Amino acid sequence: MPIFLAYRAVMSSIGPVIDLHTHSRCSDGTDTPAEVMHAAVRARVDVVALTDHDVVTGWDEAEQAATELGIVLVPGIEVSCQVSGVSVHLLAYLPDPDEPGLRSTLEAVRRHRDTRIQRTVELLAADGYPVDYSDVVAHAGAGATLGRPHVADALVRAGRYPDRDAAFTDVLHGRSRYYVQHWAPDPVEAVQMVAAAGGVPVMAHPFAAARGRTVGDEVIEAMVEAGLRGLEVDHRDHGAAERAHARRLCRRLGLLATGASDYHGLGKPNRLGENTTSPEVLQAIVSLASGTSTRGAPLR
Ligand SMILES: [Zn+2]
Ligand SMILES: [Zn+2]
């Protein structure tokens, strides 16, 4: 038996390794959806959610690979939201992607994100930065949801910065003069929309202050009223204090506590399986969902 299969056999007696937040080239990750599934196997992850920003285009390819590899795929989306100028990311697990409300909102967010990236690139180019919108689009995955990481990649390719992080720190951060706001749904409405599509809404990295301003507990309480089911507690952008606060909120508000890597391939240092979700929480998510089912290997 190959070593990794033997290892997985041992691990499966302990319980599956579950990572519920990853990105592919369908948004700002650097792996194809199939490559994310292969990377999951190498990282000993048994259950992986593909949660590209505002798109479901990677689901089919990921499903095919998950089936071949014998791992479980949880189809998901990371929905961009905004409230009072603060960006909120909402993970939607197992929604029906054809539900009209969800579908049209995702289309609108993607349109606004594209316009915003075009404007960002124009502002940078006007100040002499070596970027061009058609080059940014050409290097992103076909039909990918465009984001600032794609602009960072263009600046790295042009030799202006050594990596994405350096580009973000200098010109692409939220307080930069090159930062352009974009329309996104209100998180309370997004929670209702995901629930209406039979999905399970879980707020991603709620207190990741390094990424920009975060919302107060009152916004999370309003999201819970609307049907929010969980918080992503264990995430690398949360320190011990943020995790403790998130766990307290989960207990007080009756929310599921998840953990995940937010893997982006080579785009970020996040490693698959570095934070995980318990099998009990995954089971709760699956039983709450009515939009679609898990794919690939059967969930045991
Ligand atoms: Zn996010
Ligand atoms: Zn993410």
Share of helix, binned: 40-55%
Radius of gyration: 19 Å
CATH topology: TIM Barrel
Q: SSE string, helix = H, strand = E? A: HEHEHEEHHHHHEHEHEHE
Give the CA-based shape: globular
- Provide the number of structural domains: 1
Question: Could you please describe the fold and organization of this structure?
Answer:
43% of the residues lie in helices and 15% in strands. The protein has a single domain (3-107, 182-296), classed as TIM Barrel, CATH 3.20.20.140. The model has no long low-confidence stretch (mean pLDDT 94). Strands 1, 2, 3, 4, 5, 6, 7 and 8 form an 8-stranded mixed sheet that branches. The chain is of the alpha/beta class and 300 residues long. α2 packs parallel to α3, α5 crosses α6 (148-157) and α8 (187-196) packs parallel to α9. It is built from 11 helices and 8 strands. It has helices at 3-14, 33-42, 59-69, 100-126, 133-139, 148-157, 164-172, 187-196, 217-226, 240-253, 279-288; strands at 18-22, 47-50, 72-83, 86-93, 200-203, 230-234, 256-259, 295-296. β1 (18-22), α2 and β2 (47-50) form a beta-alpha-beta unit. The structure holds zinc ion (2 copies). The site of one zinc ion has 4 residues, from loops.
Layout of secondary structure:
Blueprint: H1 3-14, E1 18-22, H2 33-42, E2 47-50, H3 59-69, E3 72-83, E4 86-93, H4 100-126, H5 133-139, H6 148-157, H7 164-172, H8 187-196, E5 200-203, H9 217-226, E6 230-234, H10 240-253, E7 256-259, H11 279-288, E8 295-296
The chain binds zinc ion (2 copies).
Residues 78, 89, 204-205 line the site of one zinc ion.
